[in-house]
Amino acid sequence: MSLYYQGALAAHDAAQLDEMYPEPRQNPIHGARRNPGATLASSSTRRPPALNPPLLPLTSSRRKWDATKARRALKKWATTKSGNVDMKKYARGFLAHDGNPQNLTSYKLPIATVIKDKAGRSRLKAVPHAIYAAAGVIDGARGGVELPAGQRTKAKAQLARYYKKMKKTPPWRK
């Protein structure tokens, strides 16, 4: 696996990347072979952006959560002037999708809503109560959620990062 990816992925992702991106025999800069004894812990912790999306800023913990209103606000915010929904922008408010990423209804576990700041600009912010609700659903509350295994793992990892940001423990680690 290339040095760029070392330490950046969980063990199950590393094997997948090895198949997708076979490493060159020699380092193109120094001409030396990669140290086969290098461990994941000793290498860089920088991750590719797609595998470690940035956390959204949090709203006040007193803000109430309404998933239906949040979905509407996200759709309005992500809609371009021509009337098309920018799916990359829309997807930022959710933890996972269960099918076609071009389908609005395939997005699951909303955690963010659009809030106007003091200057009147629309900003996407994660809502703590939405994060608690998503963690509960991932953990089986309200009948759980049907997601592919990879999506579930990524969603749990992202939720754990939000819990850490809020200085709390995710329910599945208690």
If strands are numbered along the chain, what order do they take across the biggest sheet? 1-2
Which stretches are poorly predicted, pLDDT < 50 over at least 5 residues? 1-51
* Domains, number: 2
Query: How many helical stretches?
Result: 5
How much β-strand is present in the residues?
A: 5-15%
If you compute it from the alpha carbons, what radius of gyration comes out, rounded to the nearest whole angstrom? 19 Å
Secondary-structure element series: HHHEEEEHH
Shape: globular
Count the E strands.
Answer: 4
Present the secondary structure layout:
Elements: H1 11-20, H2 67-78, H3 87-91, E1 94-97, E2 107-110, E3 112-116, E4 122-126, H4 128-138, H5 149-165
Antiparallel strand pairs: 1-2, 3-4
Helix pairs in contact: 4-5
Give a description of the structure.
It is globular and about 45 Å long. The longest helix is centred in the C-terminal third of the chain and has 17 residues, at 149-165. With 174 residues, the chain is of the alpha+beta class. Mean pLDDT is 77; it is low at 1-51. The chain is built from 5 helices and 4 strands, in the order αααββββαα. It has a two-stranded antiparallel ribbon. It has a two-stranded antiparallel ribbon with strand order 3-4. It has 2 domains: 1-52, no CATH class; 67-173, no CATH class. 32% of the residues lie in helices and 10% in strands. Helix 4 (128-138) runs antiparallel to helix 5.
